[in-house]
Amino acid sequence: MREHRIDLLRGLSLLLIFAAHARFGFSDRLQHARGFADAADLFVLLAGVSAALAYGRLAFADGVRAAGRRALVLYETHLLLVALFLSASLLLAPFEPRYEAALELADFWSAPVLRLAEAALLVFLPGNLDILPIYILFLLAAPALFWLRRRSLPLLLLGSALVWLVSGLARVNLPNFALPEQAWYFDPLSWQFLFVIGIVLGDRLKAGRPMLPFHPLVFAGAALFCLIAAPVSLSVSEGWIAPPFGSLYHLLVSKTNCAPLRIVNVLALLYLAWNIRLVATLADHPICRPLVAAGRHSLPVFALGILLSAAAEGAMMAPQAPSLLSQLAMLVLGCALQLVLALRLERRRLARRRLPAPAIATGGLPSGQSIG
């Protein structure tokens, strides 16, 4: 039976990612008000859980084929988004030069053939198009991670933690020539640790064990951490207080390197959500069906959210900035469009299930439209 809580949390994460990418006047404040971690952390963690549920028990060769097919779909979607971003840049840049810079495409047209080749090789990742590539790499690595998991869970976690630690301390990263830092915004060598933690959690769920068993002291500790993290993160972001621990604070919350406080925070958030009965009730309630559908069909919903956020970002650059009411209207409309798409895809999926089964079954694993 499918665990609807995962889809609910994934769907909610998609809408929060859209709100952050749209660059509304309140986007940064909304993001930091949730603590040291944000929707991206939760989505990567749940992608690991989903990957374990989908591919974790397959034989190595079958896992390579299934994960490889899924990675190819993500790669094709990524290239389509790059093409659409380039088209938007050509159409809108003459009217608003800042838009090209906002999409991090200002350097593209100086050497378009080279940049296209770099985009195909995933070393030119313009603004907000650096998320699907990390999932592509994780899916390609997943069969090896599952193979190691079956042989030694401690070795998998220890190896992943060492890669995370070394890459974070040594600032090892992959190149991204679209950004001033010339590196991926989400360092995959760091973020793989969160994905691996998700695999371990998903493996527990697949085996029929409690993914995050309830304990009152752990629950209280997770709640206390989240209650402290949210005001501290917001206060530092807004400049209301100096960062705790001085410059060390920024290392502990670095998004590029998936820093320790982010990992603790997202695990605490997931622990709370998983053990609050209301969340499980809502996941199965018709009122949350659109969010659950968005989590199930996360790839097309995410792609639409990326395009809508780019449009909203362009609207925010109008000579007269949109009012707060207009920004809220854009947020609601953008979320509604994503949920409508999710519901249409879910209805189509259910309609296909009601069709008569073919006389001869074809091999392979049924694939959804999720990112992970």
TrEMBL record:
InterPro entries given in the database record: UCP028704_OpgC
Signal peptide: none
Domain of life of the native organism: Bacteria
Transmembrane segments: 43-60, 72-95, 131-148, 155-174, 189-205, 217-241, 261-280, 301-318, 324-345
Keywords for this protein: Membrane, Transmembrane, Transmembrane helix
Protein name in UniProt: OpgC protein
Species of origin: Xaviernesmea rhizosphaerae
